[in-house]
Amino acid sequence: xxxxxxxxxxxxxxxxxxxxxxxxxxxxxxxxxxxxxxxxxxxxxxxxxxxxxxxxxxxxxxxxxxxxxxxxxxxxxxxxxxxxxxxxxxxx
Length: 92
Known about the structure:
The protein is mainly alpha-helical. The protein is built from 3 helices and no strands. It is elongated and about 60 Å long.
């Protein structure tokens, strides 16, 4: 995984790839947190940067999930509306 993936690249990723990247980033962040706590990592700012990157990834992932849920809802409501209108036209 590259050190920092740009926001544009994250937004263009499919949800499955983004999930994989979030898992990798999460484990990296956990390892850094341990290293900082045990005084092995001198650069504590690195942990903070990785944590922010993880938050960005999770935010984009949630936005993508909400967008896909909305589009699925719209598709299902559109199909039910069209079937309702066909039923009402048959009754007339």
